[in-house]
Amino acid sequence: MNVAIRTRPASKALMVIVGLAAFSAGFVFLDQWFNHLVTARFPPVGASAWPATLYGVISRAHLIVPLLAVAVWRPRLLGFRVGRTRRHWRLLLLILVANCGIVGGYLLLSGSTTPYSGNEWLITEVVTVPLVEETMWRGAVFAVLCAAFGRLYRDRVATTLAVWSSGLAFGLLHAANALVGVPIAFVAVQVLNAAVWGVVYGYARALTGSLYPPIVLHAAMNLVVVLL
How much is the pTM? Predict the structure, then answer.
């Protein structure tokens, strides 16, 4: 009896992970389909900032519209509040320096460029991408996972599981970039980078109760990527 009771939460937690995997697969399919739909009808961006910025918004409209609706309806659920950010500003500053330093150092030492380098992608990568991706993964997905795991475990365990599962899923999703012609070597680095910092951003979200720190951290990292 005791063994059955102990294993039941684990089996249900596995179901949550399977559900996350299924959601992620559906997310990739929808994202790729919509991206292809927009790209086929959108004129070449070239090196112009405004077409690139407009493309960055339109190609994410399938995410922006529902996320905006939820953000207006339940902003606190997604983390749109200051929360405990001021209390942890020193740690957040340390994460910011480490994040930008590690990513920037890698790009400088390796001499690598990225598909997102170039001023035309500045607004897309520093504003649109962090807002959409963090609202999705550290906002909506994190909140759902916290609620799901919270039915099975204590708050601390549930939060830890939500942080790691959402962060790793976020990282693995970047593998889909290989489907749109991004070099495999870069995609491998991107997956690792997104998984590591996805977990870190998740901890920042959990620690502060706010979505603003992950958004700022993500924007700062992307700024380094664009400029270098």
Answer: 0.92
CA atoms within 13 A on the CB side of 191: 15
Q: Regarding predicted confidence, which is higher, 146 or 187?
A: 146
Question: Token digits for 185?
Answer: 């070597």
Q: Which amino acid is present at 6?
A: R
Structure tokens at 16: 């949550």
Q: Which of helix, strand or coil describes residue 140?
A: helix
pLDDT digits (tens, 9 = 90+) for 76-104: 999 999 999 999 999 999 999 999 999 99
- For the chain, report the end-to-end CA distance as a whole number of angstroms: 59
Chain centroid to CA 109 = 25
Alpha helix (H) residue ranges in the chain:
2-41, 49-58, 61-73, 75-78, 89-110, 122-123, 129-134, 142-150, 155-173, 184-208, 212-227
pLDDT at 8 over 90: no
Contact assessment for residue 181 and residue 141, using Cβ atoms and an 8 Å cutoff:
no
Residue 112 corresponds to which tokens in the numbers above? 């690598």
The whole-angstrom separation of Cα 14 and Cα 20 is: 10
Token look-up 């990282």 returns 171
Find tokens 């697969």 and name the residue: 25
* Cα 197 versus chain centre, distance: 9
